[in-house]
Amino acid sequence: MNIVILANCDLASNYALNLLLPHLSQHHVSVFLSAKVGGSGSKPAELNSLAFFEQKLLNQILSPLFEKLPNYQGFKTFSQMSRILQQPVTELNDINSPLSLAKIAKLEPELILSIRYGSILKEDVLALPSFGVLNLHSGLLPDYRGVMATFWAMLNGEKKIGTTLHYIDNASIDTGRIAGHSHLEVQPEKSYLWHVLQLYPSGVNLLIDAVVTLDNGAQLTTTEQQGGQYYSFPDTEALKRFTDKPLCLVNEDELTAFMLEHYIH
Known about the structure:
Blueprint: E1 2-8, H1 11-20, E2 28-34, H2 45-68, H3 78-81, E3 90-91, H4 98-106, E4 111-115, H5 123-126, E5 133-137, E6 145-146, H6 149-155, E7 160-167, E8 178-185, H7 192-198, H8 200-215, E9 230-231, H9 236-244, H10 252-262
C-alpha cells in the first residue's frame, strides 16, 4: 500500500514514528512534517519553554549530535528515517497549495495517516487517498477537540486521558468518524509532557491495527461523534491554574530518563 504520513517536527511525533515505521516495512511510505502547530502570534513564556523541550532540544541540539555518532543505536532522528522511506523526510507546511498537492498526488497515496500535523487538510487533499485520511488525535474525542488536549484534561481533573483514531472527512477539526480509542491513567505527579509521550505506544497500535485491517480489504468500524468541546492553546490564566493545582508542564528528570531509554543508550 502507498502510505503518506503527515506528522509534526516535534519529539512526540518522532517517538510515534519510531514506533510505527517498523510495522509498515511492507508498504511504500513517505513522511512529511509541519514545522509547528498553531500560528506565529505571541504565546505565554511557559509555552515557549515547552516548545524548547518538545522541538528545539531534539531538532537543533540532540539530532545533529546523534547523526555524527558512527555507531548510534537509539531511535532514529527525522533525517535518519529517510533511509527506510520512499524519499527523504520533507517539511511541508502549505499542504493545500497546488504545488504541495502535486507532490502528494505524485505518490499515489492509498492512505494518509496524520500524527500531530500542524495544518488543516482541505477537500483536495482529503480526496486523494482511496482509503481516506486517518488522524491519531492526542485526546479523547469528542470531549477534547483541538490542541493540547492532555493539558486541558489534566487541568479539568480527568482520571484518564487517551488518544482517538478518527477519519478526517472535511476541514473541520477533530470531528470525523471515530475508529478507536486508547486510554492512559493520569498520574498527577507526572508532567504534561510525560503524559503526552506515554500516549503513543497504545495510540500507535491503533494505527497499526487500522493499516492491517484496510490492507486486508476490510473496513474500519466507526462511530459518529456527538457533542464535544473544542480547546485552543491555554492562556496565562489557564497556565496559572495548571501550576496551582499543582501540575507541571515539563519535568527535566522525566525527560532525561525518557531520552536515555529510547535515544541515548
